[in-house]
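Form 7-S
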Amino acid sequence: MNFLSLLPLSILYIFADLAYYIVYYIVPYRKKVVRENLQHSFPDKPLKEIIQIEKKFFSYFMDMVFEMLKMHSISATEIKKRVRFTNLDLVEAHFNKDESVLACTGHYGNWELGTMALGLNLSKPAYVIYKTLNNQIFDNWFYQLRTRFGNRFIPMKQTLRSIAGTRNEANIYCFAGDQTPFWNETNYWINFLNQPTAVLLGLEKIALQTNRPIFYFKTKVVKRGYYEIDCIPLCLNPKETEGHQISDMQFDLLEKIIKEEPAYWLWSHRRWKHKPQSAGQ
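Output:
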């Protein structure tokens, strides 16, 4: 993997094209999961359109895999060329007042490359909350990749401790809000993409405790290997919200983004493996 990362992306995309045909036509990778997720999310779309989205997803997914490999050796200069931010000055305005913020996004586009680029474009530390992988070797490899340019990656279970330990510095904590909570920790369900969906409430709880403003990072795939990320104010005063308004706003925006261009969301994830009755709801 480290050797492959030394190759230019133009070559890696050739491998990505070959890998697409293998995982889609020859040795299908979670093709049934992707098809079911798409059909349940878009019940009004004809099968022909579902298959078009499905193919585009698998093609992009392979691009993303090889882009992630490239991240092990990619230069800061190339990252800044490939990932552009808009409205990041809104976050910097809080940093200038020595205030910390929260950020959320979904598994849309190349979230790993976007997170790496974020750390290179901010004046204050970026802390990213993540779920550790079961395979320790791959978890260590990804950790080294993700932290190359100064981002701090914090295991989900250590979130509160980390926030408490960094409360005296201006910073940003980043969350991927569309992850699936453990079934026994599920306390809130929403209707997301036409399906009952369990919601991870970590971001919302921390926002209510700290009243840090929340920004959503919306990723747009401009062309192959190039991205634009828009920094959108989601909730600037969390303590003024009621119920689960923060989570609702986050998923409403993510659903809108997905519907605009469905192929770039992570459809291979078993996002709806839990049902309300299985969590005692």
